[in-house]
Amino acid sequence: MHGLDDSLFNVIFSYTRKQAIEDGNLIDITEQAKETGFKVPVAVPPNLYERYITPPKGFEGEGQSTTGRLQDPFCYGDAMDLFDGSAKRLVFFFPYFIN
Description:
With 99 residues, the chain is mainly α. It contains four helices and two strands; from the N terminus they run αβαβαα. The protein has a two-stranded antiparallel ribbon with strand order 1-2.
């Protein structure tokens, strides 16, 4: 496997995680992930955060909370046993239907 500094590649543009968070293209949930055991930075796209993680209005009294809903994606990571910090990027899909 080749790194980005390999002579086979000419990087013409890079977009960092920090830039994506600053631009609003990712939402940093690292602190919440650390509480569950993640040792790597965690970010999600706004669409996932706003449409799934943030409970719909009126559901607060039904036991729904952002903290509780964050447990679902964190459980995927737990089930995949990916807490050792060796992965540079984890991508997994959420099998949820959202109205």
